[in-house]
Each structure stands twice: as C-alpha cells, then as structure tokens.
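Workshop exercise sheet. Pairs work together: one partner reads the sequence aloud, the other fills in the structure field after running the prediction. Swap roles for the next sheet.
Pair: D.N. / O.F.
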Amino acid sequence: MTEELIIAGFGGQGVLSLGKILAYSGIMQNQEVSWMPSYGPEMRGGTANVTVILSDERISSPYLKLFDTAIILNQQSMDKFENTVKPGGVLLYDPNGITIHPKRKDITIYQIDASNLASDMGNKKVYNMIIMGAYLKVKPVVQLENVTEGLKKSLPERYHKLIPLNIDAIQKGMDNILTVNELAILS
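Structure field:
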C-alpha cells in the first residue's frame, strides 16, 4: 500500500500539523513516511501545503506531481491542486470559502463542513482533526490508536490534555463526511 496525498489551505488552518500527525501515525504503524511542507513567508493567512507519503515500501522521492488524494481547504488550493489528483483518486474539501466547487467526473469527491463542525464543538483548533477524521473514513491508511500516538508525538506535552478532544473531533469528521452525490440528494 502506498498513499500519496497533498493537504493544502491557508496558514493557520492546521495544514502542516495535520500532515505531521498523519506522518507520525504512519511511523507508529511501521510505515515508510515522507512529510514535505511548503508555505509562504506569512504564518497565518498565507498559503500552505504539505505532501505526505505513507507506504509499506521504500519511498524513492518525496517530490510528486500527481496525488492519490488531495485535501483542499481554500479556493486558491482548489485552483492549484484539483487537477493533480490521479484519475480514480479522491478529492476531499471543506466548502467554506470555496466559490468554484470541483467538477471532475474521474475522481471521487467528498465534502466535510469542518469549519461549522469545529464551531459546534466550541473549539476552532480541532478543525484539522475533523478533516483527519473525514480522510480516515474514506482512506483508513492509519489506525486510530496510531493517530493518538501521532498526536502525542507532535503536540507539546502541555497540550496532551486536549488529545481526547482531538479524538472526538476525528470521530465527528468520520460521522459527517458526504460524497458530492449524497449532497445532491440532500439538496
């Protein structure tokens, strides 16, 4: 199994930490892992993306042009990365702030309203873990117990008390992801 994905959005949305937690989770699962961040000079509000590769085999290069999965969290990233998903791949996105929704017919498109779900949970900082849950529902590439270990590795110890909230957010994401076809039926 090899999963090549890009996570892209604004700085401050937890894009890089989502990728880092996913990478640590893969390490806990004895997978080969690559985590390659890319971001502008701005910390918050600038664009940020991270390429993550999880594999049972050696990874030859962290540089990718096409991805099995794209997790898109803003319009600029949608414009840039929608066409980088391999045919048959997955595009997962938060519709908040997206003005031009994906239209491709050769991939599976999922939507998670993570912004509103995080607001409902009373903590905007769990936004990226809601995204993680939606992703793991579609692509269970790492086990939840390894995500818990990944959280412990990537969060400073003073924030370990928030791990249960993060696990609840992951479950919230798993419970609320919809395919674009399901959205059309609900509309």
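Discussion prompt: The mean pLDDT is 91. What would you look at next?
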